[in-house]
Amino acid sequence: MRSTKLLVAGLLTLSLAACSFDSEPGSPSPTKDSPSPTEEGPQPLSEVGSVTELRDALVEAGYPCADWTQTNDVANAAESGSCSEEDLLSTYASESDRDAQVTQERANKDMLREAGIDPGSTIVGPNWMVNLSAGTDIEGIHEVLGGTLIS
């Protein structure tokens, strides 16, 4: 858990120059060890073994995935796939691969904003990323999956 805190701190440092960084107050932290003593809440998603495991967690969080296709097209990812034309799920073999993709994702979002296009949001976990389109209940999914929200 301590290494996760250090990783999140590193990601925050990298993000200061590029994009806005949104984190909902009260949302689950990737380092949360146990549920609230008064309420059994969702536990953050830790590392996943495959992109299909990530897809299953996303579906369990309430995201529809009627048209799953595993493509493995993301350059820095070990695996990737999508449930629709508006989303992208990816897993990473190392923190450095994931961090390289986060940097690319931020640059892509900046270009879309400059073109007047809403880039949607991305949730980044220990070895995974979920890119979701604008209009998705990103806050609800973020609450269940945990991770860091990049808008």
Automatic annotation (TrEMBL):
Residues 25-37 have a biased composition (Low complexity). It comes from the Bacteria. Residues 95-108 have a biased composition (Basic and acidic residues). Keywords: Signal. The keyword Cytoplasm does not apply. Residues 20-50, 77-108 are annotated as: Disordered. The keyword Glycoprotein does not apply. Residues 1-20 form the signal peptide. This is DUF3558 domain-containing protein. It comes from Georgenia deserti. The lineage of its organism: Bacteria, Bacillati, Actinomycetota, Actinomycetes, Micrococcales.
